[in-house]
Amino acid sequence: MTDAILRVQDIRKSFDGNGVLQGVSLDIREGEVVVIVGPSGCGKSTLLRCINGLEAIDSGEIWLRDEKISGQTKNLHLVRQKIGMVFQSYDLFPHMKVMDNLLLGPTKALNRPRQEAEAEALEMLDRVGLKEKAYVFPRTLSGGQKQRVALVRAMLMKPEILLLDEITAALDPEMVSEVLNVVIDLANSGMTMAIVTHEMRFAEAVADRVVFIEDGLIVEEAPPEVFFHAPSTERAQRFLQSFTYTSRRRP
Ligand code: ADP
Ligand code: MG
Known about the structure:
By secondary structure, the protein is an alpha/beta fold. The protein has helices at 44-51, 76-82, 98-109, 114-127, 143-156, 173-188, 200-206, 224-227, 234-241; strands at residues 4-15, 18-29, 33-37, 59-64, 67-68, 83-86, 161-165, 193-196, 209-214, 217-222. Bound molecules: adenosine-5'-diphosphate and magnesium ion. Magnesium ion is lined by residues 44-45, 165-166. Residues 15, 20, 38, 40-46 line the site of adenosine-5'-diphosphate (ADP).
């Protein structure tokens, strides 16, 4: 496949002799949304962290378009600019207003004129329903609002691909959908994404492809309608069953 934006080839990563990624290969095409699911501890976060260079891999290769990005140390900051990432915990700077948080990357790392970046930031805040929060401090925002700001901040860097690691895991339930709907909006606008989530209905709604990882290996890969309704491996079936409840007996 030559049209892959991101190519992960047989990567391995161990922590203290513990093989967390044991030969993972994954191609992501332009505009594609890949959802990565799997039991806790299977290596999902490690995979995303290796992709954007927060962890060094032990072997294998990672390519972003025609540039090999694994093994680099010199241009790591440039690579990171092209790969956006949002985590579970919103890491906005508390002493800076929302707008200053948003403009830090575009003005410092991309050298964009502040006015121009600010106009774009306002437009994007408006798109996620937060225009009126542009000049407040993060502490006045709800968790869901902070995550929407975090998504805007990542998008303002104009990444080639966006990596999302359980971005709603720390939110109260009523705030989950307001954040995930922004992600679906991004998907509709053509953003290439790799998304780790435990929200299975969201995963089914947003994914072009689902990748199921267990023990550091891709066990199954399928379109969402197949993965969620007729997974072929017993391990994926067991994983999906873990999201259902047994029925209660009532007299
Ligand atoms: P997931 O995101 O799928 O829950 P992780 O990728 O966070 O899983 O972790 C996979 C395994 O790697 C876990 O056993 C975890 O304890 C271990 N691990 C992750 N990061 C580190 C680290 N920096 N040092 C040591 N072990 C780690
Ligand atoms: Mg994780």
